[in-house]
Amino acid sequence: MIEVTGLTKQYGNLTAIKDVSFSVNAGEIVGFLGPNGAGKTTTMRILTCFTPATSGTVRISGMDVSEDSMSVRSKIGYLPENVPLYNWMRVSGYLEFVTRVKGVASSVRHDEIDRVSSIVGIQDVQTKLIRWLSKGYRQRLGLAQALIGDPPIIVLDEPTIGLDPRQIREIRNLIKSFALNKTVILSSHILPEVSQICSRVIIINKGAIVAEDTPENLITGSGKAARVQVTLRGPEHESKQLLSSLKGVSSVKTINPFHDGMVTLNVEMDRGHDVRAQLARSVIEKDWDLLELKSIDVSLEDVFIDLVTEESNDIQIRENSVEKEVA
Amino acid sequence: MSGLVAIFRKEMNNFFVSPIAYTVIACFLVIAGFFFWANLSLLSLVSLQAANDPSISGRINLTDVVIRPLIQNMSIVLLFLIPLLTMRLFSEERKSGTIELLLTYPVNDLGIVLGKFLAAVCVFLIMMGCTLSFALIMLTIGSFDIGVFLSSYLGLILMGASFIALGVFISSVTENQIVAAAASFGAALMFWIISWTSSFTGQTMGAIIRQASIIERLDSFLKGVITLSDVTYFVFFTAFFLFLSFRSIETQRWRG
């Protein structure tokens, strides 16, 4: 559905994205994940024909964005970051404008507005001025304009930014609901969101793709081992020694130091080892009380922070070495 | 094409939903009305005096004493007011970020520029249409040269369209509406007063400057003369700045 190859965008001397390639199949929900300024918005702007790429090609349903711009545009519904809407318009007037500008036939114009309004749930604010809409409704209206004309591809730039938790959940459910028969690309820097909605995640940092996989594979393939948190009643130093001596334990760290006879430790396990049963047994054998044993999942957040900071560490090291050379 | 119409409608809505069009039209009509009344009063005063002096009575008529000065005054008022109509056309969209959505809809850039330009021209024509009441009033009190009247209006309308195109271009360059208005006014005024320098800039330069000046072009319309070169001047002026606006939108795409 979407084929991106060797995409590079430069603003003067600044390279926003560099040699980005990926593809998206029909019906997928793909999440763009990255810190602010990573190049997510730039990539989306190129996909939506807002800005041309410096080099590289984007093909959407086999059509090149620079050559068949008009037909590509009619296949994409786009919601930019911060939801730019005409504040002086009424909701119904705005939707009518969008149907006209997207070339929806006049005979089905009102049906289309009704259809989209009921999907995103804005029927009861049709006569309101956009200026007076709450943030949540603005977001819904933004989604509505993207859905008008029933485009097969939806591109959403930070669709839940600035919303309260309840609204975030509503918008997520909305995206999931209409994503059944559409291809969706969304960007976010909120990780749980991406792992919940998306079938595939592209992590982008400093203008380049650093990882691309399903959320599950990213977590398991990250090299991050499973961890357990243990709270026991016993001496701190001895218990640390005992736990580190167990086979399959790579490190033991103190979370809460010895207090009221209790200590909380964080035990990191080697990959493929589950030492929980063994751990519990050895604590009991020592005649200490095992108060809590909790396994901690590696989250996408850990993977993300790892991938993104790994890169910056590299750069840090490189910069340091350059400084040394200069000195 | 449907995109052009959609944008035209949206802009017309914006002009008339907000107080912009009403304010500009009202200001224009008050000032133009004031000039009309003043010129008419002057006419009645001089015709009283002329009643005693038959030598000048032949030279006193509605065309020379009322219409020509009125059109000249109106053209100066337009110089001030047209930038107020055009200043927000692109600047506002750039500032609020709506331009990003607009440029990703299936409408080409030329359609966007023309839609906005035509909406401003339409408001301007409504404004000019209101001043036709002056002609009706004059018809009740005497006769005047309809030809001169029509050619003057044609001149004014062509000049207004040129200023609107200039304003659209300047609005597309900045996201600050005040800057857009001030720069459009300044640029239009330059085209207006540039002919003043023609007397001391030498023969060749002077001729070029006179060719570029709006005031010289408008003058022949006020005399009732419609020449191809004057009409072409305004048409090219308009087309040139619309083309620049189109290009300016295109470069903004590149800059993102």
Structural features, described:
The complex is a heterodimer of chains A (327) and B (256). Chain A has 327 residues and is an alpha/beta fold. Helices cover 38% and strands 29% of the residues of chain A. A six-stranded mixed β-sheet of chain A has the order 6-7-8-3-9-10, sandwiched between helices. In chain A, strands 2-1-4-5 form a four-stranded antiparallel β-sheet. Chain A has a four-stranded antiparallel β-sheet with strand order 12-13-11-14, covered by helices on one side. In chain A, strand 7, helix 6 (165-178) and strand 8 form a beta-alpha-beta unit. In chain A, helix 3 (91-101) packs across helix 4 and helix 4 crosses helix 5. Chain A is elongated and about 80 Å long. The mean pLDDT of chain A is 83. Helix content of chain B is 84%, strand content 0%. Chain B has helices spanning 2-17, 20-50, 54-57, 62-86, 88-96, 98-102, 109-130, 132-141, 146-173, 177-193, 203-212, 214-222, 228-255. The interface between A and B is medium-sized, with 32 and 28 residues.
List the main descriptive attributes of the protein structure presented here.
heterodimer, A: 327 residues, alpha/beta, Rossmann fold, Alpha-Beta Plaits, six-stranded mixed β-sheet, four-stranded antiparallel β-sheet, elongated, B: 256 residues, mainly alpha, 13 helices, globular
Counting DSSP H or I runs of 4 or more residues, the number of helices of chain A is 11
Percent of sequence in beta strands of chain A? 25-35%
Major sheet characteristics of chain A: 6 strands, mixed
CATH class of the largest domain in chain A: Alpha Beta
The biggest sheet of chain B, with number of strands, parallel, antiparallel or mixed sense and barrel status, is: none
- Report the count of strand segments of chain A: 14
End-to-end Cα distance of chain A, whole Å, is 52 Å
What integer value in Å does the Rg of chain A equal? 25 Å
